[in-house]
Amino acid sequence: MYRYSVFQHDPPSWPEPLLPVRVRLVRETGVPFNSVLANLYRDGSDCMGWHSDDEPELGAQPVIASLSLGATRRFVFRHRRDPSRKVALELPHGSLLVMRGDTQKDYRHALPRTAKHVGPRINLTFRRILPTPSSSDSGAFGCRMFHDTPPCTPPPARR
């Protein structure tokens, strides 16, 4: 299980349509992602507050791959020790943002609300969850999570 918010969550197996996406991300990034969170942002009023993906089960320097599908939204970074250091990115449909290295240690990030009319957006956030000695982690709320414990391998070729 993965600790996210304050709710218990037992993730199901990967849905078939996400397997080719995961395989391509593994090939492109070299990271054996074994988990994904799927968040739906219905419009500009749905948002994600300031946070870092720095849970212990993600490791010291986690790699997070964030795939945006649907409406373009603004994504912002703010340095933890110097909040005046900010970066804002527009993430259009099909964009992939890969955060690695000390990004989670040094920065917080957010998807702010917007008053502009925007359509729905789905964000798929891929992670590599490391084994933990405890299985009492809590899970996701307001999103769907898919997870497998072993490193991912490409699905068998179709004939």
**How far apart are the first and last residues' alpha carbons, in Å?**
34 Å
Proportion of beta-strand residues: 25-35%
CATH superfamily: Alpha-ketoglutarate-dependent dioxygenase AlkB-like
Q: Secondary-structure element order, as H and E?
A: HEEEEEEHEEE
CATH class: Mainly Beta
Count of folded domains: 1
On the 0 to 100 scale, the average pLDDT is 83
Rounded to an integer in angstroms, the radius of gyration calculated over CA atoms is 16 Å
Second rung of CATH, namely the architecture: Sandwich
Number of helices: 2
In the sheet with the most strands, the strands line up as: 6-3-8-1-9
Helix content: under 10%
Task: Find the count of extended strands (DSSP E, 2+ residues).
Answer: 9
CATH topology annotation = Jelly Rolls
User: What structural class do the secondary elements suggest?
Assistant: mainly beta
